[in-house]
Amino acid sequence: MELRPVVEADLDAFDLAFQSEEGATPYQWFGFTPTVAPREALRTRGLLAGADNMLAVTVNGELAGRVEWLERRWGRRDTSLCWEIAIGLLPSWRGRGIGTLAQRELVRYLFTHTRVERVQATTDPENLAEIRCLEKIGFQQEGRVRRAQWRGGRWHDQLLFSLLREEFSLTEDKSDQTADI
Ligand SMILES: CC(C)(COP(=O)(O)OP(=O)(O)OC[C@H]1O[C@@H](n2cnc3c(N)ncnc32)[C@H](O)[C@@H]1OP(=O)(O)O)[C@@H](O)C(=O)NCCC(=O)NCCS
Fold first, then answer.
1. Per-residue H/E/C for the chain
2. Can you tell me which atom of ligand 1 is nearest the CA of 89?
3. How far apart are the CA of 137 and the centre of ligand 1, in A?
């Protein structure tokens, strides 16, 4: 599993895969969403070094999905910024351990290349695969944000997770991290 910068063809593949409830899964389906913004961000800054950022997830060179990190602030922008991560694997790549590896690599990337103290993630209380991924990486659940997300005709609670810099080993041996790939 590798992370690499996004290219235009990746966005075409994501549009194809995620513009339906089946492809996006109920937890990520918010109706049809415009794809102009990521294409513009790709053209102007490679979808990097901004408030919303993306890398492609590949397995043996084949596109498997994407990881994103978004600017979040708990106070002033210049002193209290953290990243919120997100992931979407293409349907055929789910359930093979890649979600855990990709998010762990993204956390490693963010703690290595940016100075944030905290990486956070939110997910639906019923999204057991994502919750398990986060727990395996070392994220701790901080709480339940009630009626946070409008989706599928009703409000949904969200679970808030975080991982602090001191809780993550940047140099850990990756050889024992297996995936069914
Ligand atoms: C959620 C997602 C990232 C998980 O990645 P994945 O590669 O499919 O998950 P993994 O194969 O790494 O499995 C992670 C763990 O969840 C467990 N799991 C998977 N599906 C599960 C389910 N329905 N119930 C309980 N546990 C489940 C796996 O057994 C594994 O745990 P284990 O290693 O202890 O056995 C991926 O499925 C995905 O992209 N889904 C669509 C988008 C999405 O939901 N993104 C996150 C929303 S914020």
1. CEEEECCHHHHHHHHHHHCCHHHHCHHHCCCCCCCHHHHHHHHHHCCCCCCEEEEEEEECCEEEEEEEEEEEECCCCCCCEEEEEEEEECHHHCCCCHHHHHHHHHHHHHHHHCCCCEEEEEECCCCHHHHHHHHHHCCEEEEEEEEEEEECCEEEEEEEEEEEHHHCCCCCCCCCCCCCC
2. 39
3. 12
Q: What is the pTM of this model?
A: 0.95
d(CA 51, CA 53): 7
Answer yes or no: is 177 within a domain.
no
Q: Is residue 69 part of a domain?
A: yes
**Span from the CA of 64 to the centroid of ligand 1 (angstroms):** 14
What share of the chain in percent tops pLDDT 70? Answer: 95
Report yes or no on 70 lying in a domain: yes
What residues does ligand 1 touch, defined as CB less than 6 Å away? 25, 27-28, 65, 86-89, 94-100, 123, 127-130, 132-133
What's the total number of domains in the chain?
1
Per residue in 125-159, pLDDT tens? 999 999 999 999 999 999 999 999 999 999 999 99
Q: The CATH number of the domain where 82 resides is what? A: 3.40.630.30
